[in-house]
Amino acid sequence: MNSMLNNKDEMIMSLVHYFVTEEDYTPINVQGTKNEIWLENLNAPYKIVRINSNYIHNTEQFEMDIFKMQYIIKQIKKKTLSFKMNALNICLDLSDYVKLNNQDKLINTINVNSFNDVKKNSFLSKYYPKIKTSSFKKTDNLDKIINITDDINNKTEKENLKFEDVFKPKKIVMTKIIMAICILMYFVTLFLTDNFNLSLVLLGANNKALVLRGDIYRLITSAFLHGSIIHLVINMYSLWIVGSEVETYLGKWKFLVIYLLSAIMGSLLSLIFLKNGISIGASGAIFGLLGCLLYFGYHYRLYLSNALTNQIIPIIVINLVLGFSITGIDNASHIGGLIGGYLATMIVGLKYKTKKSDTINGLIVYILLTLFLVYALLKLV
Q1: Do 232 and 352 belong together in one domain?
Q2: Going by C-beta distance under 8 Å and a sequence separation of 6 or more, which residues neighbour residue 157?
């Protein structure tokens, strides 16, 4: 049985098959285009690959096509929060009259007219070496077309399963446990002694002199103490909203590590600005969870771009501004927690996204920053 596809159509399918199955690109829907396919992989040598089968007969038409491509890339950059985005423009029907000189620095155009051109193209081979061994060849066998379609569908199905695995609702455990501890500790503080502040100190409030004396545990225990019922209710509400999201996306054990590392970093930075008083509250660690969502949202921005720009970032900015505007709020703890949470998420990693190098880099930066804060704290004594 012969296929009804012409040479150009078959080349498109083969190229899409290669970039999707071998280079982990994902097809993206671009409005207002015809006879072209756009693929995206934010970790590839070229973040965008465009396969264009339209006939371009002169340089003026080519320049207009590049202008249109630049406009579309701008929209993709906004959606993916990318500051810089390079693109590979693969043209299948470019006239000999078209001159490719003085191309856009971020858009590289190549012209391929046959399967042989694809395999022999030095530019493709340089950035995509696996293309040399891929099965690009002309065939009239419909079975090949069916197999290509099946491969692409299987790849898409695997990506959908990964998405479901990360975003499916999960049982919230650790967030509830931490909330229960915070509530319990508040009532213990109320009844431990007649002096509420003394109770806070005895139970592990953060204090410069006591930490320098050796009570390092206060860097963590202070994140479970609160100074009033309003303080407790606000933080527990925030913890439930933000913590549930983090625990759903990363799991309970990664959530716990992020919470504790955020609390430590927040407490350390708080001590730099704290004089002789005490610092308490879960807000530093909660800001760490917001830092986690910032890191998570950036790496899953294809799915969460609106949530990242319309919810996560505004919440962080508003709360930091309020912290600087209202007296009595430990904004140093918030900033430290935010940074600590971001780095802690790098350390524990995101499923399907984190490389070993990301984990190592996050760990190194977290340790160096911790050592710097300890050094700064000792110098202030």
Answers
A1: yes
A2: none
Q: Is 82 among the domain residues?
A: yes
Backbone phi, psi, residue 206, to 5° = -75, 130
Q: Model's pTM, two decimal places?
A: 0.77
Residue ranges of the chain with per-residue pLDDT less than 50? 1-3
Task: Please check whether residues 221 and 348 belong to one and the same domain.
Answer: yes
Catalytic residue among 279, 283, 305, 333: 283
Residue closest to 297 by CA, chosen among 320, 315, 322: 315
334 noted as active-site residue? yes
Q: How far is CA 285 from CA 223, 267, 343, in A?
A: 7, 9, 13
For residue 135, what is the DSSP state? -
**What is the domain-level CATH number for residue 257?**
1.20.1540.10
CA distances from 4 to 9, 86, 93, 151, 153 (A): 9, 35, 19, 20, 21
Q: Among candidates 373, 112, 100, which has minimal Cα distance to 219? A: 373
What digits encode the pLDDT tens for the residues 82-138? 778 899 999 988 888 887 765 667 899 998 888 888 888 888 888 998 887 776 555
Please give the residue range of the domain that contains residue 361: 174-379
Residues 264 and 258: their CA atoms lie apart, in Å, by 10
